[in-house]
Every structure is written in structure tokens, then in C-alpha cells.
Amino acid sequence: MRILENKWALVSITILCWSIAATFSTGYFYYQYLGLIERTKGTPIHINLGLNYGNGTIRWFNNTEATGGMTLLNVTLLVAEVNYTIWPGMGAFVDSIANIENAYPFYWMWWTWTSYSGWVEGPVACDKYVVANGETLYWYYENTTISPLPPPPP
Questions:
Q1: What pTM was computed for the model?
Q2: Which of 42, 44, 89, 145 could form a disulfide bond with 105, CB atoms 3.0-4.6 angstroms apart?
Q3: Tens digit of each residue's pLDDT (9 = 90 or more) over 92-101
């Protein structure tokens, strides 16, 4: 029985050590990320931003100049009138772009282009997504009752 108790003690110590290492690693990389964002603020970047109004009208703002550290919401405000609501703990929810308001079942959703997956639905709220140089982003006024959401048309 004593051997079995030692085995569980060893497992417990191993898990404890792993937890401590994972916590410190996470903290280290988080602060590195914050430092990177701070160092790149103010650096000019260029992105491509599309607005699909859901009625066949698509406007592209290619090579839009922004600055490092800006969010998708900030960049969208540079090219269009945007009304949004901040939900504490969740982020900004876009209510309208260029006077096209959300009306069930149509809502403004955002997408990002990746070379390996094509269009990918935005993973976070638009005010939480920091844009990168050369990135292509797309706002699509779409029917959200369809699941999964279809990607924007080409």
C-alpha cells in the first residue's frame, strides 16, 4: 500500500510542477505580446477592408492606411459610419454600418481571409481583433439563421 501512496504523491508533484510552469509561461508570453503591441503602435500598416451590404453591393477599401495596434472596429470607423454597442466583458457588437442596421435575421458579421482556409469567421469581437499589415478583412451583412454561416461570396 505504501508504494501506491508514493506513486500518487509523485503524480501530484508532477502535476503541480507542470501547473506552475504553464502559469509562468502564459504570463511571460502575455507580457511579451503586450510589449510587441506597444512597440508597434503608430507604425503605418495597410489592410484591405471589404463591406458587403447583402444586396449585391460590395465596396472595397484596398490598401487602407492604419496604424499598428488598431482594431478592426477602429479601421472600419476610418472608412464608414459605424454604430455599435459595447457589451461589458464581451466587446463591441456592430449595430449598423453606413446606415444599414441589423434587422433579424440579417446582422453584420466579419470575416478574415487566410491563405490556407479561405474566409474564416471573426474569432472575437471587432474591438478585440488587432489588425495586421497586409491583412484582408470583410464585413458581410448576412442571414444568421443559416448554420454554419456560409462564407462571403467571392
A1: 0.73
A2: 145
A3: 999 999 999 9
